[in-house]
Amino acid sequence: MTSSSRRRGEIPLLLAMVYRAMTDELHEHLRTEGREPLRPAHGYTFRLLTERADVTAVDLADHLGVTKQAASKIATELETWGYLERRPHPTDGRARVLALTAKGADYVRHADELWAQLEDRWAAQIGTDRLDQLHHDLRAYVSASGGRAALRPVW
Amino acid sequence: MTSSSRRRGEIPLLLAMVYRAMTDELHEHLRTEGREPLRPAHGYTFRLLTERADVTAVDLADHLGVTKQAASKIATELETWGYLERRPHPTDGRARVLALTAKGADYVRHADELWAQLEDRWAAQIGTDRLDQLHHDLRAYVSASGGRAALRPVW
DNA sequence: GAATGTAGTCAACTAGATTGACCATTATAG
DNA sequence: CTATAATGGTCAATCTAGTTGACTACATTC
User: Fold this and answer.
1) Nearest CA in chain B to A28
2) What CATH number has the domain bearing residue B117?
3) What's the pLDDT tens digit per position in B48-100?
4) What's the domain range around A51?
5) DSSP for A53-90?
6) Residue B129 falls within a domain, yes or no?
7) Cβ–Cβ < 8 Å for A30, A39
8) Residue A14 domain-assigned?
9) What confidence tens digit (pLDDT) does each residue in B17-60 have?
10) Between chain A's N and C termini, which has fewer beta carbons within 10 Å?
11) Considering its fold, how many domains does chain A have in total?
């Protein structure tokens, strides 16, 4: 009996609020650390580069749900700040591979730790089991909605 | 045993994806209905005006987490489209009250129904109990993070 | 080897916000 | 009371992160 009278259609709003609160807390933290002004799009870029090698600007554009021009600009920012490098593509002379530098990989570990701390605080409130369920249920929605879940910030 | 191996710090990403998928589905639906190009910010405006009377542009700005100029512009759009009116403020001669028109109120009901349908689809996957829990757990995070949960789209 | 497709860049434009200046009205301090 | 400060709203200029469109260089396919 956890209900406490849920209004129909309220969940999306709550999702927005929680996600927004979490990202605000993270980016506020990063700001106090004197980091470059990293935005969510940069975070999603790190994520992709961590998961896959041989990522091109076009791949990044697909992942973020933006044009290749926008993706390239984001990559250039990260390059300027020393988080990634553009390397020649092993097989395609037109393309260049986007790859994290050591600084980039360090940042990913650091950011993951910060996210994890937010999660931990939440777990302390509602319990680890519930967080596991949450994870499961969110995954269910994502896989049900097909490839729709691009990562671009919402509008 | 619902875990299926959750990576630490993965939850925020999933929240983002689900929220993004939901809003995309909603706005796609609205578009096929031939609606004006309503954005999330408009939705959050409707929500506030539904909940409170005597809302001013400054109140809206606070709610959305944007400047009063931006909030005013959003209000003007909704006014142009006939969803809201600006009325004289009962006690403050400087201020004007933002209020939904009948068309605005109709829209709110319609949008709530669409959100609810997305929820229902989710409920069909994971069950109503789980959705109730989700609601409870999201609320827990929101109330723990204080007034931080402004509704402005994330970056 | 010619035609078509694709990765990337450059440049011009757009949307949605920001900052700053300002006016009118309200609230507060002497 | 009045003088001063604070507040709601608007106008104008600017910024930012994206877009579209045109183009080059390399790849693929026939």
Assistant:
1) B148
2) 1.10.10.10
3) 999 999 999 999 999 999 999 999 999 999 999 999 999 999 999 999 999 99
4) 39-145
5) SSB-HHHHHHHHTS-HHHHHHHHHHHHHTTSEEEEE-S
6) yes
7) no
8) no
9) 898 889 989 988 998 898 999 999 999 999 999 999 999 999 99
10) N
11) 1
